[in-house]
Amino acid sequence: MDSAVLDGIINKLLEVRGKPGKQVQLSEAQMRMLCVLSKEIFLKQPNLLELEAPVKICGDIHGQYSDLLRLFEHGGLPPRSNYLFLGDYVDRGKQSLETICLLLAYKIRYPENFFLLRGNHECASVNRIYGFYDECKRRFNVRLWKLFTDCFNCLPVAALIDERILCMHGGLSPDLHNLDDIRSLQRPADVPESGLLCDLLWSDPSRDGQGWGLNDRGVSYTFGADTVTEFLEKQDLDLICRAHQVVEDGYEFFANRQLVTIFSAPNYCGEFDNAGAMMTVDETLTCSFQILKPADKKPKFGSFSFGTSAAAKPGYTPTKSKYDNLEYIFFILLPLWYPGDIHGQYSDLLRLFEHGGLPPRSNYLFLGDYVDRGKQSLETICLLLAYKIRYPENFFLLRGNHECASVNRIYGFYDECKRRFNVRLWKLFTDCFNCLPVAALIDERILCMHGGLSPDLHNLDDIRSLQRPADVPESGLLCDLLWSDPSRDGQGWGLNDRGVSYTFGADTVTEFLEKQDLDLICRAHQVVEDGYEFFANRQLVTIFSAPNYCGEFDNAGAMMTVDETLTCSFQILKPADKKPKFGSFSFGTSAAAKPGYTPTKSKMFLFLFFYVKLDIALH
Hints:
The chain is α/β, with parallel strands linked by helices and about 625 residues long. It is about 25% helix and about 20% strand.
C-alpha cells in the first residue's frame, strides 16, 4: 500500500479526536488491505519480539477508541514514540473496528516502531461472542470478521525488551521452561483450550496461593508470587509485564514488583470506575505509568496560574497575614513537588532533590515529619530550613506530628541533638517547629496537611484561626490535622489505634470536599507500600517519602507533583539498598534490535524509579 494512501487512512481515523463515540467509516476494501498487509508483517517478525527501549506499553483497549486516542495524545503519535500493545483490542467496547484499524495501520506504516501482541480476545471463539463479530456483521459483513480472524491468528504472543522485561497478554505457563518455547510456537494458529499458547493469553497471577492453581475463568491457570520469582531467576529476567485484568488504578504490581499488570481501558464497559494506564520504559531505566481517569469523570480543577512567586491572583484580596497557618500557593512556577515523611533519612532526601530538581529550579511543599527515626535528622532539617530561608516563596514546609517536643523527645531527634551538640539546640528547633504552618491550599483546589481531617474542621477559616507559636495539644483541630488517618474499615469518625485523634471514612472525605468545593486532599503520616496510596475514590492521596522506612519496611518512597497541564504525577523511589538487576537499556531510531547487538548487563543502578502520571486534565 502506498504510504500516502496509508497516511490518508490514518488521518481519517484521527479526525474524530475529541469527538467520543463518533464513527469512522472506512471502506471494506481499505480494511481488507489492512488485514492482508499487517498479516504479512506479523509473520515476517518473530513470535517472541526482541525490542529495545524506549517504548510505551499499553494494555487492554477493548474497542474504547476514544480512550485509545487519548493514549496517543499523551504518549505521542507514532513514530515520535515507540509502542507495544499487549492485546485485547476488540470486544466489549462500541468501536472495535476503528480501534483495530488504527492499530493495524500504524503497524504497517511503522513496522519497526509499533508492535502488537495477541490477547485472548484476538481469537474467533471469543470475539464471536463478546461483540466484535456482531459489530463487523452490523457495519459490514461476516466476511470481514473472518479476515480479521485470519490476521489475529498471525499476531506474535510475547515481547522481550532489552533481554530484561518479558511481556505478554496473560501470564506464565507450566509449559514455559525457557523463551525458546515461545519462539517455537507455530503461526497462523487458533488458540487451543490448553497448553502454552493458551496460558500466555489467559493465565493470571494469584495473591491467594503459591504455585499453580485452577483459574476461575474456567481456562488456563493461576500462578503465585513464588512462580514469578522462580521464573525470573531461572531466565535471568527482571520484570514480567502483562495485561488481561481490570485493575483500579490502571496498573498493579505483584510479587514484590516483579510483575506488573497494565489495563488501558478506563471506566471499562461503562461499569467499572477504573483508571487506564500506559507504561513507559525510557533511556534512564525509568519505568513510568501514565494513568488516565475515565473521560466522563470531569475534575473540578481550574487552570493553574503561573508566575515567579506565591503571590495572590490579581484582584484577589486574601484575609491572611504573613503568619497565616494556611499557606496559599497560587502563582508558584509549576511543577510543584510534594514529598511526604522524610524522618531523618537524609540520603533519601538528597535523592528526592536529585530527581525533582534543586530549588529554585523546582518548587516544593513538604508535608511534615522531617525528624526522628532516621540517623540524620539534623542534616535533614537544616537543609530544609536553609532552603526555606533562601527561597521563601518557592519552598514550603508544613508541620508533622513529629515536629512536636513531646514526640521527638522520645523518637530520636532529642537524643541526636544531645549526642552531637546539646539540649539547648533541641529546644531551639522545638521553638521553630511550633511556628510551622499546618496546611496548604493549592490553587484553591487541593488541601494539603500532614495527618488528615477533623470533626472540628468545619471550614478553612478554622485552620486560619489557629494561633502560633503553639505546642500540639492532645486533642482538637491542631492535633487532628497532624494525627488523624483515613480508614477503609468504616464510615464517619472512629477511634484511632494510635491512641490519639480519629480515623475518618471515605464518606467523610467526600462530604468535606463537596462542602468546601475542593478536589483533592493530599496528606502524609502513614507508611504505604508504593510510596503513595489513593483513598475515597481518588479523592485523597497519602504520600510517604522515606523508602525502606527505619530499615525494616520494604516500602518505596514517593513524591507527587502537579504540573502546568494539571497532571498529578507520582515519582516512586525504591529503597537505595534494593539494587535491581536492570542494566542500561539500548537505543536507536526504532524499537528493533540493533544488528550485531550483544546485550550486556552494564552499570547497575542503585535505584529504580517508577513515575506514575494521573491524568486529571482531560475534560
